[in-house]
Structure formats: structure tokens, C-alpha cells
Automatic annotation (TrEMBL):
It comes from Methanolobus halotolerans. The gene is rlmE. One of its GO terms (cellular component) is cytoplasm. Residues 196-254 form the TRAM domain. S-adenosyl-L-methionine binds at G50, W52, D68, D84, D109. Gene3D superfamilies: Nucleic acid-binding proteins (2.40.50.140), Vaccinia Virus protein VP39 (3.40.50.150). This is Ribosomal RNA large subunit methyltransferase E.
Length: 258
């Protein structure tokens, strides 16, 4: 508490009526990456005490839903759910509130209970953020955005890669409002992918036509994939290297006999 009372963002939150200094983190993330826009439906996972809910409401002026195991004190214009984000029942409640089409944005500033053992706390953080990502995948609209807090450590890159597999744009970002001694960082995913393919997937295909740019154009599980350096009639094994909302790119990793 003594440290907080010397913190500029602590006093700004008091002066400007926010529940938490963490409010400024979301404001800065949004200023940098434009995650929330006016009219968006936003779901905040692990939302207590509500600092991010206040900011989300201010930024979107749309429907905002907060989810937490703890009770969240009322915020004007914000709906709350008391529940576990890993529970299908909680997911159903969220979709009942935001509509079956899903949310435009899912945010999560939750942190695990800290033990003081860094390896354990990092593992708990990754477990929590993975749960938030899995929940987001169930409730986001195609093209939706995602922000989650993560503690840095040896499992961070694996989690970042998992977010990359689900969004067109992925970045890590540390807002100025984060304390300099903190190991927290935020992962931002934009344009949620609902494609049946993911980076790294491999397929055996026959090139039957070329696209307007001269690349091979094939349908894989009903999804268009462009393949460079091939000709009509080639039989190849491809590896997906990038996925966009409406198409993907792949490299040839093996040429096969017809």
C-alpha cells in the first residue's frame, strides 16, 4: 500500500474516479493498438474489481460484460456474471448476454494468486491466460480482438505462438502504466481467425489451377490456399505459413510423384 500511495497512476485513478491504476494500462493499450472502438461489445474475463470494465464502457459505449469468480460492485451500464471462465455454463451465460454472434472484443487483466515462487507463478499465469484464450475462442466474433496479461518467462513464447495461430495480427506490449519492476506484459491479438487451418499444418495436394498472380490456388477443407513456385499438375506436400481471414499461404516442403 505504501508503494501504491507513492505511485502517480494510483493518485490519478483516485482523482479521475477509476477503481484501479490498471485502468490506465487498458487506455494505453487501446491508444497504441485500437482494440476497442465505439459500439463494440466487450467481455472482460477476471474483471474484479472493475477497473478495466469502467474503461471498456467509456471506450465502447456499447454492451460491456464482466466475468469473475468474485462479486463485482455495480458499474452503470455494465452487466456482470459470477462464474468460472473454464465452465461451459459460464460461456453459455456470456453468449446469452452478448448474443450468439459473439463479442467484438475479449479482454483479461486477471492474475493468479502469487506464491512468491517465480517458476510456479509463471506457470499459473500461463495456465490462466490459456484459459482466457480458450474462452475468447468460444465467444469472439470472426475478426474480433483479444487482450490478455501474461507474466514473462520460459513459457511465454509458446503462449504467444498460440495466440498467433488464432489472430491475423499479434503483438506483445508493455504500457507505461505497468510498474518498471513488473514482469507483466500484454499480448494483443487482432482479427480473430475462424479458418479451419492453422500455421504449421501440412497437406498433400494436387495443383489444379493458378491464381491471377501465378501462384497455385487450391481448396483445403473449403479454404483457399495460395502456393508459390508450382505448376498445374504438380503433386506436393505443403506447409501452411500464414493464415488470413479469407485465405492462407503455404510453402512446398516436398514434391511427390503423381
Amino acid at each position: 500500500m505504501a508503494r501504491d500511495r507513492r505511485d502517480n497512476y494510483y493518485w490519478r485513478a483516485k482523482d479521475e474516479g477509476f477503481r484501479s491504476r490498471a485502468s490506465y494500462k487498458l487506455l494505453q493499450i487501446n491508444e497504441k493498438h485500437g482494440v476497442i472502438k465505439q459500439g463494440d461489445t466487450v467481455v472482460d474475463l477476471g474483471a474484479a474489481p472493475g477497473g478495466w470494465l469502467e474503461v471498456a464502457k467509456k471506450l465502447s459505449e456499447g454492451r460491456v460484460v464482466g466475468v469473475d469468480l468474485k462479486k463485482i460492485s455495480p458499474i452503470e451500464g455494465v452487466e456482470t456474471i459470477r462464474g468460472d471462465i473454464t465452465s461451459d455454463r459460464t460461456v453459455e451465460k456470456i453468449l446469452d448476454m452478448v448474443g450468439k454472434a459473439g463479442a467484438d472484443v475479449v479482454i483479461c487483466d486477471a492474475a493468479p494468486n502469487l506464491s512468491g515462487n517465480w517458476s510456479l507463478d509463471h506457470a499459473r499465469s500461463i495456465d490462466l491466460t490459456t484459459s482466457a484464450l480458450e474462452c475468447a475462442r468460444k465467444i469472439l466474433k470472426p475478426g474480433g480482438n483479444f487482450v490478455v496479461k501474461v507474466f514473462q518467462g520460459d513459457m511465454f513464447k509458446g503462449f504467444l505462438d498460440e495466440v498467433r495461430n488464432n489472430f491475423t495480427f499479434t503483438r506483445s506490449y508493455s504500457p507505461h502504466a505497468s510498474r518498471s519492476q513488473s514482469a507483466e506484459i500484454y499480448v494483443v491479438g487482432k482479427k480473430f481467425l475462424t479458418a479451419p487451418l492453422r500455421r504449421g499444418d501440412e497437406f498433400d495436394i494436387e495443383i489444379k489451377e493458378l491464381g491471377s498472380s501465378g501462384d497455385g490456388a487450391v481448396l483445403v477443407e473449403g479454404f483457399v490456399v495460395f502456393v508459390k513456385n508450382v505448376q498445374v499438375g504438380d503433386y506436393v506436400k505443403i506447409k501452411i505459413k500464414d493464415v488470413k481471414p479469407n485465405f492462407a499461404f503455404a510453402d512446398v516442403i516436398k514434391v511427390m510423384e503423381p
